[in-house]
Design goal:
Distance between the termini: 41 Å
Organism: Fulvivirga imtechensis AK7
Oligomer: single chain
Number of helices: 25
Number of domains: 3
Structural class: alpha+beta
GO cellular component, one term: plasma membrane
Pfam families: FtsX (PF02687), MacB_PCD (PF12704)
Domain MacB-like periplasmic core: 20-238, 433-605
Domain ABC3 transporter permease C-terminal: 289-405, 676-783
Length: 795
């Protein structure tokens, strides 16, 4: 019996080529896109899931409240972790990470190497985190001073197939480290991206009391607590800890951030260790796009199957007359649905394999098509696909199996008003989803354009940023500046501790107006630069003067940005004095606010000190170059660098490219919106084309009668298109408020955003209307051109 069902089902699928193509194409695209998007979602939601204690690990986040302006920081003072572990029994284990500078340089023999993804770590690090060690003892790997853990990539690169344990690696500061363990490459979905870890025990000695100073920052502090109850109890003790170790005017507090929340819930946290901040909204968006596509493909099947039933009347009637029971007819039609679904599933597997490399480029992931990566996803989608096939087929099957054979064979066949209403509802649903996708694409594109066009308060174009990665270059930076400036291709040179678009940590300082004893301390960003920085970056000086270039006097002066002046309550900042740490500095100028970070973040208070200062060392050259001679400028910069330091390769980037990195996830979302909208609309139009074909075929005789009675081609076109146009209009009215809410919520991720207006929605409505009209026009125009003599011949 089953064999017979399948045989007839395959025959029907093969015979109705257009109908089958539309359904298979729609489902294949839907399943393919859903598979890829769900893979991305599963990877994002599995961040940091490799740690067995993930539910009990917390990051200590510092809170600074200044006059109602609350800021959150992923770094704490170095003593915080050890004292918490010592004072509170709820803390089972504590581990800290530090990153001193942005780059580590080291050598093996005469060969020099460099790495950014390095940290100094407490000896307890591998007791908190379960990063896998290939060789070495995780309990003792970081116990001894000058111990180093490297990942398998560095092990292979430095030592090939040799056992690296016990090998010596010399840092450019003279420290000789011994490899004690090799760590498996850290998974991409870890908020900590580590390639080299070094031990901490000698750090306090080296940095002169840094580790014991409560006014310093830079410690990423993680604690393990034994269950939620202990976490709640520990959180209640934080105020007592703050009161014991901090002065009241410090306005400092802490909260516990679960490891599970770090990837998605760190948007407002500054200076966290996370390699990339996820956006939870995108997870729901991508899941929604995948579900939209499957829904639209399923709607196509239901619409076309119920419409097609009008042309299978004789088949159904003959089967019923021959004794077929209702359940047998249902099984027959469900068999056809299942076959279409399974064919679509098989085709989608091949399509996923083909598209995966492009999807990796789009999402910046490294997925591989194998049973490990895709096994769970494809298994789940197999069940979903089969369910879609059966559920999509159940309604048409029940409708057709209930038809009376006598009425069918007399030609008085109708699926009833309910079926017509359902088809209209489903078409409206399809185009509602499609219009939402179109609006999302337009809004995302406009926001990306706004980001590109908005003034940042400085000019990021034609700037080469050269990293200072060695003591030799840092000691001779003045001479190097002069050498850089000798090139006719380089029009300006500046040095600074940080640059706008910074990926390294900014120095944090507490400051307040001198003489204001009752004033709360303000936590501010701090960078050092020379007298050429404002000119090279084309920053605007609103009041006062720039640094003079005299290191003696300039070291006692600072510039501040507008936000710092406002927060300090300075109406006339120039000439005022501020206290930073134990020192007093005179404000000699106010710089117009500029975006030091991405447009996701609001502009924070910023102090601009002279290059020689107590808070940061010089880390960058900024070279303004003539855009006509980019290659020549880079070549000159490399030549100068190599002249002064042959041991460390030059490391540089173009500042505008660095800024583009801030918006990769947003651009990724915009691209997925665009592709998703295109596929969604294509699948919806396939269904609309097929549905129009069946409906117009049903009305062929009506068209013939109207033509005989004098109806023009335009009259007939408007008559046949009116229903579809009204459905698109209704879809637009439903999609508009939904899209308004969703896209405003997305735009709220940006501190600076374009004003969402009516134009975006009207444009989407027009696009949807035109696409729908084009989809049905071929069938409509073809029907209006039919000769009424032929259509009415059998009447």
């Amino acid at each position: 019996m089953l064999k017979n069902y399948l045989k007839i089902a395959i025959r029907n699928v093969a015979r109705n080529k257009v109908y089958s193509f539309i359904n298979i194409a729609g489902l294949t695209l839907g399943i393919t896109c859903c598979s890829l998007l769900f893979l991305f979602v599963l990877d994002e939601t599995a961040y940091d899931a490799m740690h067995s204690k993930k539910d009990d690990i917390y990051r200590i986040v510092e809170i600074n409240d200044k006059g109602g302006e609350v800021r959150y920081f992923g770094q704490t003072s170095p003593p915080t972790g050890p004292i918490l572990a010592n004072d509170y029994e709820e803390v089972v284990r504590c581990a800290r990470l530090f990153k001193f500078g942005g780059h580590i340089n080291f050598s093996i023999g005469d060969t020099k190497f460099g790495e950014r993804a390095y940290y100094f770590a407490d000896s307890t690090f591998f007791e908190v985190f379960d990063f896998e060690l290939i060789t070495g003892d995780r309990k003792t790997a970081l116990d001894e001073p000058f111990s180093m853990v490297i990942d398998e990539d560095w092990s292979q690169r430095l030592f090939g197939n040799e056992n690296p344990i016990g090998k010596e690696i010399v840092l450019d500061d003279g420290g000789a480290y011994v490899v004690t363990a090799v760590m498996k490459n850290v998974p991409q979905n870890s908020h900590l991206q580590l390639k080299i870890l070094t031990s901490l025990p000698y750090t306090d000695e080296r940095f002169g009391g840094y580790m014991s100073n409560w006014n310093n920052f830079g410690a990423y502090t993680y604690v393990v607590l034994d269950g939620q109850a202990q976490a709640d109890r520990f959180a209640m003790n934080i105020p007592a800890f703050i009161e014991k170790y901090f002065e009241p005017e410090a306005n400092r507090n802490f909260y516990l951030q679960s490891l599970n929340d770090i990837h998605f819930k760190s948007k407002d946290i500054e200076f966290g260790a996370e390699a990339a901040k996820g956006q939870e909204a995108y997870i729901f968006i991508f899941m929604g796009i995948g579900i939209f596509m499957l829904l639209i493909a399923s709607i196509n099947y239901v619409n076309l199957a119920t419409a097609k039933s009008l042309h299978r009347g004789k088949e159904i009637g003959m089967r019923k007359v021959s004794g077929a029971q209702q359940y047998q007819l249902v099984l027959q039609f469900l068999s056809e649905s299942a076959i279409i679904a399974l064919i679509s599933m098989l085709l989608s597997i091949g399509l996923v394999d083909v598209l995966l490399p492009y999807f990796n480029q789009l999402t910046d992931k490294q997925f591989v098509f194998n049973s490990t990566t895709f096994g769970g996803v494809l298994g789940l989608l197999f069940i979903i696909t089969l369910a879609i096939g059966l559920l999509s087929g159940i309604y048409p099957a029940l409708v057709m199996s209930r038809l009376k054979p006598a009425r069918i064979l007399k030609g008085a066949m109708s699926t009833g008003k309910g079926s017509v209403a359902l088809r209209k509802i489903l078409v409206v649903t399809q185009f509602t989803l499609s219009i939402i996708m179109i609006i999302a694409t337009i809004v995302a594109s406009n926001q990306m354009d706004y980001i590109q066009e908005r003034s940042l308060g400085f000019n990021k174009e034609q700037l080469i940023v050269v990293d200072i990665n060695s003591g030799e270059v840092r000691r001779r930076f003045e001479v190097m500046k002069n050498e850089f400036a000798k090139s006719p291709y380089i029009t300006g040179v500046a040095v600074s501790s940080r640059v706008p678009g910074e990926w390294k940590n900014l120095a944090q300082v507490y400051l307040k107006a001198s003489g204001a004893e009752q004033q709360d301390s303000l936590r501010s960003n701090y960078i050092g630069f020379d007298e050429h920085m404002l000119g090279v970056y084309e920053m605007e000086l609103l009041a006062g003067e720039n640094f003079s270039g005299n290191a003696v006097t300039d070291s006692l002066h600072v510039l501040i940005n507008e936000t710092a002046a406002q927060t300090l309550g300075f109406k006339e900042p120039v000439g005022r004095y501020i206290q930073i740490g134990g020192g007093q500095y005179q404000v000699i100028g106010v710089v117009k606010d500029f975006n030091f970070e991405s447009l996701h973040n609001r502009i924070a208070p910023l102090v601009l000190g002279y290059r020689a200062n107590a808070f940061q060392q010089i880390d960058y050259f900024s070279l303004k170059f003539d855009p006509r001679y980019t290659e020549e400028a880079v070549a000159h910069a490399s030549k100068v660098h190599d002249t002064f330091d042959q041991n460390t390769p030059i490391e540089y980037h173009f500042l505008d490219e660095q800024w583009e990195q801030f918006y990769k996830s947003d651009q990724r979302a915009g691209n997925i919106f665009t592709i998703g909208a295109g596929i969604t609309i294509f699948v919806a139009c396939l269904g609309l084309f097929g549905l129009a074909s069946f409906i117009i075929q049903k009305r062929t005789k009506e068209i013939g009668v109207r033509k005989v009675l004098g109806a023009s081609i335009v009259d007939l076109f408007l008559l046949l298109s009116k229903t579809f146009a009204l459905q698109v209009l209704l879809a637009f009215l439903i999609a508009t408020p939904v899209s308004w809410y969703l896209m405003n919520d997305w735009l709220n991720n940006f501190a600076f955003r374009f004003n969402l207006g009516v134009a975006e929605f009207l444009l989407a409505g027009v696009v949807a209307f035109v696409i729908a009209l084009v989809s049905v026009s071929y069938r409509v125009i073809k029907a209006t051109l039919l000769d009424p003599v032929n259509t009415l011949r059998n009447e």
